[in-house]
């Protein structure tokens, strides 16, 4: 949760949202909380076999995986020194928003 709330990452998400509304899931507090809670529940189910009452490998699981992939891509590009504009161009060129909405 703290990673998603970091100022630098929020700036990147805001920049991306201008072109693709799919990134709103990382900006909107309720959607972000739902995403993080879904990840935590799925992780608990896969690790411990309890604490999750849904279908672990259902639609939400695949969507969470896609969103996590996007986060990793953004963080890697950021760590490599790309600015938010360059990250936006690279992600939007790959049509990543279509996979996370």
Q: How would you summarize this macromolecular structure in one to three sentences?
A:
The chain is mostly helical and 101 residues long.
What do these coordinates show?
Helices cover 69% and strands 0% of the residues. By secondary structure, it is mostly helical. The protein has one domain. α2 crosses α5. The longest helix is centred in the last third of the chain and has 21 residues. The model has no long low-confidence stretch (mean pLDDT 82).
Furnish the topology, listing elements before pairings.
Layout: H1 2-5, H2 7-17, H3 29-48, H4 59-79, H5 84-93, H6 97-100
By DSSP, the count of extended strands is 0
| First-last Cα distance | 19 Å
Number of domains: 1
The helical percent reads 55-70%
What integer value in Å does the Rg equal? 14 Å
Residue fraction in strands: under 5%
How would you describe this structure in keywords?
single chain, 101 residues, mainly alpha, 6 helices, 69% helix, elongated
